[in-house]
């Protein structure tokens, strides 16, 4: 008994190894595995055809589970948004490295207020600095600076923002970009000193 | 009231079909509610979130009631153990 089980296991392992290394030109891998596990199938019958079928009751239960998951997702998302809105964030001033050498009409990315928050700094044609959070206010895709039209554009749903105000020019975004307050200090150093949410309600 | 076996089977299938259709419709509505909640949160329209979550909860309760308690009339025993008076007696 023990020997035959060992033989079965050896056959199965060899079959699995062969199927895994097969380049696809061989015979059906499923048939090979079923042949190698024929003895086990006697003890644990497994019908491929039966498994592929889903009864209406099972499908109903699956739909009920999906409904539960969707409800939990909506509640969880709302709860997280509420917590984030109430959380007090402190903004420590942070120097924007390389901003001094930024040419007019160009932009660069930096991280503010935390290492996870990407922001975009742009210097307009007049030499003024403007900085915003890089997340589009529609579905949080990163916006980029479109030099040809001097505006921020979102590649996901074709929204656009004004570089001087952060306001929506067109597209689906419902509110302006989050504005980052800047301060130009001695020697032309640019410092980020705070972040102001662009529009919307500030707390629940 | 006597219900023929064939008639009861047909009613059973119809009820299951109706349950499936209703559940699919509820899932679609909940998907829409979830996407609306995501958009509302990103737009910082927080006052919309509570009604959306309540709506999703109502949909969920309806889905649960359809799955757990809505049974064909021909079925004698319900999930709560209640024995229907009008159900045909088994021989």
In brief, what are we looking at here?
By secondary structure, chain A is an alpha+beta fold. In chain A, 34% of the residues lie in helices and 23% in strands. The mean pLDDT of chain A is 83.
Polypeptide structure, described:
- Helices cover 34% and strands 23% of the residues of chain A.
- By secondary structure, chain A is an alpha+beta fold.
- In chain A, the strands form 2 sheets. In chain A, strands 1-10-9-4-3-2 form a 6-stranded antiparallel sheet, with no helix packed on it.
- In chain A, helix 1 (2-21) packs antiparallel against helix 2 (29-36).
- Chain A is elongated.
- In chain A, 20% of the residues are buried.
- The mean pLDDT of chain A is 83.
- With 91 residues, chain B is an all-alpha fold.
- Helix content of chain B is 64%, strand content 0%.
- Chain B contains 2 helices and no strands.
- In chain B, helix 1 runs antiparallel to helix 2 (49-68).
- The two termini of chain B are 15 Å apart.
- The model of chain B has no long low-confidence stretch (mean pLDDT 78).
- The interface between A and B is medium-sized, with 34 and 34 residues.
How is this fold's topology laid out?
The complex is a heterodimer of chains A (204) and B (91).
Chain A: H1 2-21, H2 29-36, H3 38-43, H4 48-52, H5 56-86, E1 94-95, E2 106-111, E3 118-123, E4 129-133, E5 144-146, E6 151-154, E7 159-162, E8 168-170, E9 179-184, E10 190-196
Antiparallel strand pairs in A: 1-10, 2-3, 3-4, 4-9, 5-6, 6-7, 7-8, 9-10
Chain B: H1 5-42, H2 49-68
Helix pairs in contact in B: 1-2
């Amino acid at each position: 008994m023990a020997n035959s089980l060992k033989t079965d296991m050896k056959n199965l392992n060899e079959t699995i190894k062969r199927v895994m290394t097969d380049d696809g030109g061989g015979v059906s891998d499923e048939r090979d595995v079923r042949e190698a596990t024929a003895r086990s199938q006697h003890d644990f019958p497994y019908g491929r055809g039966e498994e592929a079928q889903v009864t209406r009751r099972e499908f109903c239960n699956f739909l009920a589970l999906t409904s539960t998951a969707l409800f939990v997702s909506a509640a969880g998302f709302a709860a997280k948004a509420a917590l984030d809105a109430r959380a007090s964030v402190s903004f420590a001033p942070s120097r924007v490295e390389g901003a001094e050498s930024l040419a007019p009409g160009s932009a660069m990315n930096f991280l503010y207020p935390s290492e996870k928050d990407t922001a975009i700094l742009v210097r307009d044609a007049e030499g003024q600095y403007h900085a915003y959070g890089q997340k589009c206010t529609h579905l949080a895709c990163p916006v980029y600076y479109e030099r040809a039209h001097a505006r921020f554009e979102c590649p996901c749903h074709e929204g656009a923002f004004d570089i001087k105000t952060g306001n929506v020019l067109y597209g689906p975004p419902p509110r302006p970009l989050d504005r980052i307050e800047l301060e130009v200090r001695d020697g032309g150093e640019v410092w980020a000193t705070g972040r102001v949410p662009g529009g919307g309600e500030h707390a629940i | 009231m006597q219900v023929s076996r064939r008639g009861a089977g047909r009613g059973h299938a119809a009820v299951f079909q109706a349950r499936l259709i209703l559940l699919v419709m509820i899932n679609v509505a909940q998907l829409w509610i979830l996407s609306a909640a995501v958009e509302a949160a990103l737009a910082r329209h927080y006052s919309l979130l509570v009604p959306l979550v309540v709506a999703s909860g109502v949909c969920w309760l309806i889905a649960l009631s359809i799955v757990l308690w809505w049974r064909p009339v021909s079925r004698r025993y319900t999930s709560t153990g209640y024995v229907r008076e009008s159900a045909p007696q088994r021989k």
